[in-house]
Each structure stands twice: as C-alpha cells, then as structure tokens.
Amino acid sequence: MGFLRVVFVIALFVILHGSGSLSEDGVLVLDYYKETCPSAEGIVRRGVRVAVIKDPRMAASLLRLHFHDCFVMGCDASILLDSYGEMVSEKEAEQNKDSLRGFELIDSIKYRLEEACPCTVSCADILAIAARDAVSLRGGPRWQVWLGRRDSLEASFTGANLFIPSPNSSLEMLIANFKDQGLDISDLAALSGSHTMGRARCLSFRERIYHDSDNDQEHNQDTHKLHTTFRKILRSMCPESGRDYKLAPLDFNTPAKFDNNYFHNILQGRGLLHSDNVLITEDIEGEMRRMVWDFASHQHHFFSSFVNSMVKMGNINVLTGDQGEVRKNCRYVNI
After folding, report:
1. In Å, what is the CA distance from 207 to each residue of 94, 201, 213?
2. Which of 68, 85, 315, 78 is nearest to 183 (CA)?
3. Rounded Cα gap, residues 189 and 174, in angstroms
4. What pTM does this model have?
5. Helix pair 2-17, 299-313: axis angle to 10 deg
6. What is the helix (H) or strand (E) element at residue 135, kind and residue range?
7. Is 226 left (phi over 0), alpha (psi -120 to 50) or beta?
8. Residue 28 and residue 318: Cα distance in Å, rounded?
9. Can you tell me the distance from the alpha carbon of 198 to that of 67, in angstroms, rounded to the nearest whole number?
10. Which residues contact 289 (CB under 8 A, 6 or more apart)?
C-alpha cells in the first residue's frame, strides 16, 4: 500500500500542476530539468555507476550523504560546504568527521553538469538523484526523484551534532529525532533498512559488543547462541580499545547489495549497531517489531515503504524558487 500511495500522490500532483520545470513555494516537481538540462539525471547516473563499480561501498556512502544532509536544516546540500571564515563545516561534526565519504565524487559529477548546463543543477538535487541511483544500482528499487531544490548559503555544525542520530541511540531517541524532521516510526523502520549496505567503524559499534546486555532479545536458546557467536566475531575484529577505524559490514551476508537482509539480521540479534537492535529490543508496544517482521518477510513491501520514506525525507525543509542559490562549486557558496 505504501508504494500505491506514492504512485497516487505523484499522479495527482502531475494532473493538478503538470510536470514542467517550475518549483516554487517549497514544492518540488518531476522533470524539473526537462527543458534547462535534459541530460542532468543521466550525467549523475553515469558518475554514480562508474564509482560504484570501482567501489561498491560507495553506494551506501552516497545514500548516507543524502540522509545526513536532509537531517540538518533540510535537503539543501549544506553537508557539502567546507569551512570558510567563521562558518564551521558540518563535515567536522561528531557523526560526520572521518566518516562521511563521496565528496570527491559529487565534485566530479558537479563539474560535468557545469560543463553541460552551467549554473543550473543544484548540489542538493545531485545528492537526491545520486542516492536513488546508488540504491537501484545495488539491486534496490528505483523511483522518480522530485527536483527543484536550491542550495543553502550556510552550514550548521551545531545542527549536525544535534540532529544526526548516533549509532548508540535508544529507540526513544530515534523516534524523537525522526519526529523532529516530520518523519514517523514507519519512516524510521523503512529508512533504517539503508543499513542493508555499507560498513561501519569499530568506533560505532564497540559499545554494542562490550557494554550492551548479553540478554538482548533472547527469543529462544538458538537465537541466544547465534547472538553470542556474532558478538564473539565482532570482538575479534574490534578490541575493547584501539582500532577505532577498522570497518565491519553492516550486513555480513550481502554487504554490497540492497535487499531486506538487514531485517533478518536484527530479528536474529545480529544487527551491527546498537541503534539497529533497539528496533526490536526496546519496542515495548510491538508496533516496530511487527514492521520489522513484515519487511523481513516481504522484500517488495520493504522496497515500496523505503521509496515512500525516501521521497518524504527528500522534501524536508527544501529551498526552492528564489531561496538559496545554485552553487557553481558544491563546497563553497557563490561569490
């Protein structure tokens, strides 16, 4: 039903407003660059495809870039700005520093777009398109991206430290964090599925494997044995001190593929991050657990829900019309 709702909303919007290249009053549209830069999405996709072939992990990195951008001031490419003058870059925030990747790839794609269509395609739209292509190129769903975002004139280092979820967040904290962005628990469940791809630093999951209770989600003896074995594997990779930047896959089975295996993992106590496992272990009312079971049982439902939540997330506090600007270089505001 999630997918059908998205299709219905898109169809209704196109009927009422058309699919031309107008974006105003905070509203994004389809085919925004149809007249001004018809090759825009193709240029982004080619850049993402080459990068993901060379480094499959880049798909997860691009998806994460879009997420971290949207959760701070909205989807405005503020995450891409370097520090300048008194402005401190969001890249320096605790959840971003030495962790986010893909900035050089975005630079490369932006360079090609500036050659083809100068001062036309925003960096914020590049992030949204690249995230979609990263998912689809690794076996996940493909969707139409609503476009017309403008780029922020500033970054928020403070906001990045406040609003980007920590890998050690409780379920209560995650729900509150998503609510601040206008997202509900169904969005939290679906977007958490992004962790079906990529890797995390030892620094991100050490607390989980050394300090979480050994009794987390012991459905039965077999689950407990599997959970304990998994923890021993992680401890062998990540000592209690040191090796902060050693990487482990978020999904040990299919780390480079976008699928629903993430939900199978957390049902078995094998989620890498504390913030993954709390979807099950701290869900007192059982609503989140039911969604996790549903996504684990029906990949098509996870995909449709994920698309719905990605479209919703991509609309958070967007700048449109005369707001912001279209940066010539994604790292700096225009002079």
Report:
1. 16, 12, 10
2. 315
3. 10
4. 0.88
5. 40
6. helix 123-137
7. alpha
8. 8
9. 14
10. 279, 280, 283
Residue among 267, 251, 271, 268 at smallest CA distance from 259: 251
**CA distance linking residue 74 with residue 238, whole number of Å:** 35
Tens of pLDDT, residues 69-123: 999 999 999 999 999 999 999 999 999 998 999 999 999 999 999 999 999 999 9
**Residues comprising the chain, all counted:** 335
What are the residues facing 151 on neighbouring strands?
325
Q: Are 303 and 140 in contact (CB under 8 A)?
A: yes
Please enumerate in sequence order all residues whose Cβ is within 8 A of that of 64, keeping only pairs 6 or more positions apart, or say none: 100, 194, 198
Of 16, 39, 40, 46, residue with least CA distance to 29: 16
| 131 or 216, which is more confident | 131
Backbone dihedral region for residue 218 (phi beyond 0: left; psi -120 to 50: alpha; all else: beta): beta
pLDDT value, residue 217: 43
CA distance 277 to 280: 6
Which letter does DSSP use for residue 68 in this model? H
Whether 318 and 293 have beta carbons less than 8 Å apart is answered as no
Closest CA to 313 of 9, 63, 55, 52: 63
d(CA 78, CA 70): 9
Active site residues: 68
Amino acid letter, 90: E
Q: Strand, helix or coil at 325?
A: strand
Residue type, 141: P
What are the start-end ranges of the E strands in the chain? 199-201, 247-249
- Give the Cα-Cα-Cα angle 52, 66, 114 (nearest 5 degrees): 75
Asked if the model's pLDDT at residue 222 lies above 60, the reply is no
Query: Is residue 128 within 8 Å of residue 237, measured between CB atoms?
Result: no
**Segment 230-248, tens digit of pLDDT:** 888 888 888 888 777 789 9
